[in-house]
Automatic annotation (TrEMBL):
<dbReference type="GO" id="GO:0005802">
    <property type="term" value="C:trans-Golgi network"/>
</dbReference>
<protein>
    <submittedName>
        <fullName>Uncharacterized protein</fullName>
    </submittedName>
</protein>
<feature type="region of interest" description="Disordered">
    <location>
        <begin position="289"/>
        <end position="315"/>
    </location>
</feature>
<comment type="similarity">
    <text>Belongs to the PHAF1 family.</text>
</comment>
<dbReference type="InterPro" id="IPR039156">
    <property type="entry name" value="PHAF1/BROMI"/>
</dbReference>
<dbReference type="GO" id="GO:0043001">
    <property type="term" value="P:Golgi to plasma membrane protein transport"/>
</dbReference>
<dbReference type="Pfam" id="PF03676">
    <property type="entry name" value="PHAF1"/>
</dbReference>
<dbReference type="InterPro" id="IPR005373">
    <property type="entry name" value="PHAF1"/>
</dbReference>
Length: 500
């Protein structure tokens, strides 16, 4: 394998993009190890280890963007920088005999040239013979073992690293920034310079739609989509058409017609009583229904299977079925296309007017938006890239976002809706979860086998019982508020948000 040290085509890439590419080449990447925090998967960094390739990739938790590439074994890959080998192979071409990296002279004379002095890190073990000297260039840093007895602040670092006191580099780091000391404190929080996918670089809007940075949810069926280079796009549920969606975000990655009726019983008229339908999915007294959850194709194996619709003629409204789902895997969301329906109400503290009833119409519109969290450990992990969102509750700065723990989201939304007609009549339902089991049946493109069953060991039972057991079903819970449906993991992370 040849790894070209081109930061523009790697750093900033989404975890979804990198994992998809790595998994598609099992001969090149035979071993994949994903490490993340089971308690805080959306805040702590995510580490992708490729032991057979000598690489370790670090992503930030909230945005899941690649921030750091580490080469830990130089014998596992042929590293090239501007057509120059970073590590010279032996005369026989065999690099497997040693994991040592380039020597200081090779780095200094042939690869990158003069550099400012680096940093010396003394050994933590007082009996250790070697410390580490980190030599930084813009975007690249090398770690050289250096005899601790030879180190002195007054020494010329070029002479010191050229002497026998220093060994060849043991690791190399690739990052965004002028030097490692300047960037390490803000490595996982600074704005990435490059897009999530290298395919969008240098492409015009006519060729490829601008990538989505985040969704702003204002209630009353109104969403604003923040994009990297283009002005924000507006989505109004019940008004935005399929053609509008395609014009703004490009053709969907897939289109499916849904036949899943597994929770339709929960969308019956209000009331609990003998012989009546269970009522959990709608808010009493509001006329609003809790939307079906997860209309992407990864949760669709039922008595009736999903039907994939050809995307060749999606510009023709007559070619679409009455209800279909536009899957934008690389944008992180799905859109439910159906006949117009009245969206959820405005937030009580919002200045937006209540949405009006939608007239009967033959033109299909977007009636639901499903935003996927791509939480490590969740059942549909890596089906979509992570979608970030913000809920704007009023005209001030009162907001909730995709990294907010659900307990905080729930308490805030109950306070917001307290006293309103919808909040009073639906208070019981807003506090009762519906259990969604993703562990039975087949699931196309699921990566649960790849992850190794985190849900089985860390996400069992009620959310308030850390060591409960449900047989490893991988259950999540659904919580509904007017116009919003949250799918929540046992650690409190929001795996999916449906806006309807």
């Amino acid at each position: 394998m040849t790894v070209v040290a081109n930061r523009e085509k790697a750093l900033g890439a989404s975890l979804h993009n990198v994992l998809t590419r790595v998994k598609s080449h099992p001969q090149i990447y035979p071993e994949i190890d994903l490490v993340y925090s089971s308690a805080n998967p959306l805040h702590d960094p995510i580490v992708l280890k490729l032991p057979a390739n000598g690489l370790r990739l670090r992503f930030d938790g909230p945005d899941q963007r690649l921030r750091l590439i580490e080469v830990l074994d130089f014998s596992r890959a042929n590293l090239v920088y501007k057509n120059q080998e970073v590590v010279k192979a032996s005369k026989t071409g065999d690099m497997s005999s040693t994991s040592q990296g380039p020597g200081f002279r090779h780095v200094y004379n042939r690869l990158f040239g003069p550099s400012y002095p680096g940093e010396y890190v003394p050994p933590t073990d007082p009996h250790a013979q070697y410390g580490t000297y980190v030599l930084s260039y813009p975007g690249v840093a090398f770690s050289f073992p250096l005899q601790h007895s030879a180190w002195s602040e007054s020494c010329d670092f070029v002479a010191l690293l050229s002497s026998s006191a220093a060994l060849s580099a043991t690791s190399m780091s690739i990052f965004q920034g002028p030097s490692w000391p300047e960037v390490r404190a803000k490595l996982f929080i600074q704005q990435p310079q490059y897009p999530r996918s290298s395919t969008v670089m240098g492409k015009s809007r006519d060729v490829l739609a601008d990538e989505v940075e985040g969704f702003h949810i204002f209630g009353a069926g109104k969403l604003e989509v923040e994009r990297r280079n283009s002005p924000p796009a507006q989505i109004v549920l019940g008004e935005t058409t399929a053609q509008d969606l395609i014009a703004e975000f490009g053709p969907p990655d897939a289109i499916y017609r849904k036949h899943d009726r597994r929770i339709s019983i929960h969308r019956a008229a209000s009331g609990l009583g003998a012989g009546e339908a269970l009522h959990l999915g709608s808010l009493p007294g509001t006329g609003l229904e809790i939307a079906d959850t997860d209309h992407s194709s990864n949760n669709s194996i039922t008595d009736d299977s999903d039907e994939e619709v050809s995307s060749n003629n999606i510009s023709d409204p007559t070619s679409l079925p009455a209800e279909s789902f536009f899957n934008y895997f690389h944008h992180g969301f799905d859109a439910f296309i159906s006949y117009p329906a009245t969206p959820g109400p405005a937030f009580p503290l919002s200045s937006l007017p209540e949405p009006s009833s939608q007239p009967s119409a033959s033109q299909l519109t977007v009636t639901k938006i499903i935003l996927h969290g791509n939480v490590p450990g969740s059942y549909p992990f890596n089906r979509h890239r992570r979608s970030r969102w913000t809920i704007h509750l009023d005209s001030s700065d009162k907001t909730l976002n995709s990294e907010t723990p659900y307990d905080e989201i729930s308490q805030t939304l109950r306070d917001v809706w307290r006293g309103s007609e919808a909040g009073v009549s639906g208070r019981r339902d807003m506090q009762r979860p519906m259990v969604l089991n993703r562990g039975w049946g087949d699931s196309p493109e699921s990566s649960v086998e790849f992850l190794g069953g985190w849900e089985e060991s860390m996400a069992r039972g009620p959310r308030n019982v850390s060591d409960g057991h449900d047989g490893g079903l991988g259950n999540t819970e659904l919580f509904g508020f007017p116009g919003l449906l949250f799918e929540v993991l046992k650690n409190g992370s929001v795996s999916c948000l449906t806006v309807y």
